Amino acid sequence: MLTDGNSAAALPLSQRKLPALDGVRGLAVLAVMFTHAEASRFPHLLRDAFGYGWIGVDLFFVLSGFLITGILVDTRECANYFRSFYARRFLRIFPLYYGFLVIAMLAFPYVVAPGYMPVRAERWLYFAYLMNWTALAPWHHHILKHFWSLGIEEQFYLVWPLVVLLVNRRRLLPLVLALEAVVLTGRSWWVYHHGPGVAVQFATITRMDGLLLGAACALIVRWFQIPRRLAVALFWCSILLVSGYMVGFRLSGAYRQVFKQSTGYAILAIGFAALVLYAVLTDGERSWQQDSLCSRPLVLLGKYSYGIYVLHVPIFYFLNRLARHLPQAMHESLWFDCVLVAVKFALAFGAASLSYNLYEKRFLALKDRFAPIYREAPVATASAAALA
Questions:
Q1: According to DSSP H, which parts of 11-80 are helical?
Q2: DSSP assignment, residue 116?
Q3: Can you say how many angstroms the Cα of residue 329 is from the centroid of all Cα atoms in its chain?
Q4: Burial level of 295, CB count in 10 A (0-12/13-18/19+)?
Q5: Spatial separation of the C-alpha atoms in residues 165 and 85, rounded to whole Å
Q6: In terms of Cα–Cα distance, which of 179, 125, 95 is closest to 361?
Q7: Torsion sign across C-alpha atoms 198, 200, 206, 207
Q8: What are the structural domain ranges in the chain?
Q9: Among the four 51, 77, 203, 267, which has the fewest Cβ within 10 Å?
Q10: 56-65 confidence digits (pLDDT tens)
């Protein structure tokens, strides 16, 4: 086991533990939970802030693009490139997803109001990770509505390993940036000519900004020497861009959805890409930004973020139903909303923690059987070593 700093720096970047990225993941899932919390008695400004929590999904996309592309680039020359990648992804994602999905499809019809279940004819799409394409048909909110983003990520995982393997190493970053330009241009043209809609919001080909720019970040930190003095600038650039999106959305008035679905997704992806770059480039440094991202609560949220994401909407739904049986006077209290939100978050975290430690870890323990087999000993790139 490698324990000293020099040995850790010698590992490929994708095999090194970067606590700040867990913190970033924790921020993402916290934002998503806030947007689903439904705290009607909270002050108007606070409810508006919670309403922006959906951007946590875009942060997840950037992280996924960064981490997955990093793994693929670092193992590109491995003898078991495809087998290692897909087997390890399978063990991380499928046990919880399919275990929960089977329970949901069998049990939820008996305990969930019919209007909150996916349309029966479309339920097979969830088993094929094609649920985000149901947005092309009439869309309604339901208890599995948040699974659309998991479909986009799985479709990305299916195609991207082949792209990384086949494209010349020098051309991969230009290709990623060109694809982002195509996605942004094509989506903006469609929205300006045909208007915004749920199909644009949920379709894979129109929501790839975060995945592509996350992939670009993975290539940049491996192939370029980036001066550390730019790290703080990247952090503030992230804050500026995300804040700029929020201001732009507020000022767009009747054209808010046009702004959001044309250039808004790209602005958020660039901002979150800057945050991920900052977290990686300043790994191991002491600053209030790094200390915040590496704080134990955020890191724990990040550790269990996948389970939290999968489970939180059904948990929130059942808690809301139980809360309806309480006296009406309680519902009119701000304190009731505060307690209910706290209980929702605590139960989501607790359920994800139990799932991870009692169920998912049994499958994760098998990942070592599919470790990458390097034809030569892995060597860190110059940029990766510089990050230590």
A1: 19-35, 44-51, 55-74
A2: G
A3: 38
A4: middle
A5: 12
A6: 95
A7: negative
A8: 5-386
A9: 51
A10: 999 999 999 9
